[in-house]
Amino acid sequence: MAEKKINPRKAGIILHPTSLPGRRGTGDFGASAYDFVDFLADSAIRIWQILPLTPTGADGCPYNSFSAFAGNEILIDIDELIDKKLVEMPVETPEFSDYRVDYPKVIKFKSEILDKAAEKFYSESRNDAGFAAFMQENSGWINDFALFRVLTKEFEGKSWKFWPAEFRNRDKNALEKFASSHEQELFRHFFAQYLFFSQWKKLKEYANEKGIEIMGDIPIFLSFDSADVWANQHIFKMTDAKLSEVAGVPPDYFSADGQLWGNPLYDWIVLEKEDFSWWIDRFLHNLKLYDILRLDHFRGFSAYWSVPATETTAKNGHWEKGPGTKLFDTLFKRAGKIPIVAEDLGDIDVDVVKLRETCGFAGMKVLQFAFYEGTDHEFLPHNYTNTNCVCYTGTHDNDTTVGWFWSLSDGTKSFVTHYLGSNGDDIHWKMIRLAMSSIAEKALFPLQDVLGWGGDCRFNVPGTTGPQNWTWRFQKDSLTKYHSDLLRGIVVAFNRESKTCRDVS
Known about the structure:
The protein is of the alpha/beta class. The chain has helices at 31-42, 78-83, 103-125, 129-137, 142-154, 165-168, 172-181, 183-209, 227-231, 268-273, 277-289, 325-335, 350-359, 401-406, 410-420, 427-437, 447-451, 481-493; strands spanning 4-6, 10-14, 47-49, 213-218, 238-239, 242-243, 245-249, 259-264, 292-295, 303-308, 318-321, 340-342, 363-366, 389-392, 442-446, 500-502. The chain has a domain at 363-483. It contains 18 helices and 16 strands. β5 and β6 (242-243) form a beta hairpin. The chain is globular, with a radius of gyration of 23 Å. The protein starts with a strand and ends with a strand. The relative contact order is 0.14.
């Protein structure tokens, strides 16, 4: 009898947890997250894609974090702390919007609650076996993270490059002395991370039991003001806290100056001599959190745009070779082959394609980009030649499908309506159906497209800042049986439901 295997064709929804409903200012790992998993299961959806879960600043941008390993504590479910009597009732919750996340307000509210919970746990349970095991398992990063957070507060939020030399340069004696005199402040951050990862583990296990995989996101670059850069200065192109080169994107049709991102660049020569240990640790850490990894700006692993740190634009940068297959071969030796989606959009050359194909990673095809070059565009499903890809209606960086469609020129709009067989009224469902019908093994779409909502619900506009980005939320009664029934019907029609099938290879 032929061996059976799991159906590789899957459908997924993109939704960052902050967008979930809830009465405490932001979505979190509480009841609404479990309700959303139930909705996915009812809809036969098998992938939940999220953005990075790492901590953010007041802008809420998940790609601008001060840690590559820590979790964002605003996602911690406060109700669980109440149930465990770590927080005393009543909890006075400020008046929050149900439609947008006010990050400064939420951060302040949850931080104050976590301060009190940490004090109680410290006095009553700091020798808890589960907490001790967590600290041991995460010893490679958590001490530096907590030190970074407490030192940042000690020096009134200043960048670590302006700290006194003994702390900026990580003098061992100075750090040990500081740690011994700030034990409880450090413990507060240990405890918050313990809560975060405990709650996330429980939620992920629930999703997996329902047949749903979590796709997580790994940005290639880090913020300069992050615990990881401070603690690992030797693996970046810098001397005495001064960057020599920074990351960017070369000039193109849309920007004559290119984009100057300003992130520190890795010293891949040093990393290779260390068997890429920091990156391998990062991958292994994320593999505990997610079932599938999405690598943001994948082209940077092939070659990256390096700009002298003194420049004010990205025009005078140049291409530098990335680690290529050496990094991923090292990873595969440690972890075996793992499911990775390469974000390979934008300025892609043959070397990037070769790296992706050599490693066996899935590429991305975004339908919103497919209708501008006639019928030959590689993102139009009738041109797909390989199933090892992900077909998106749009990503977190795109407008919603409804918002996108109504912003098109008349000519492009006509092409879209003829291609999809739609007059525009049901454009979101037609785009979802198109993605599902493609030969791509994975078809994904933002929740906004399921809801059929317009551009005012867009999650991010790249190159802009402000309260319109990263703050969108949906409401508890937004998703109904109508949505799950319609989704399930399309999933089943295009053979993307969970089942086993005969291996005929």
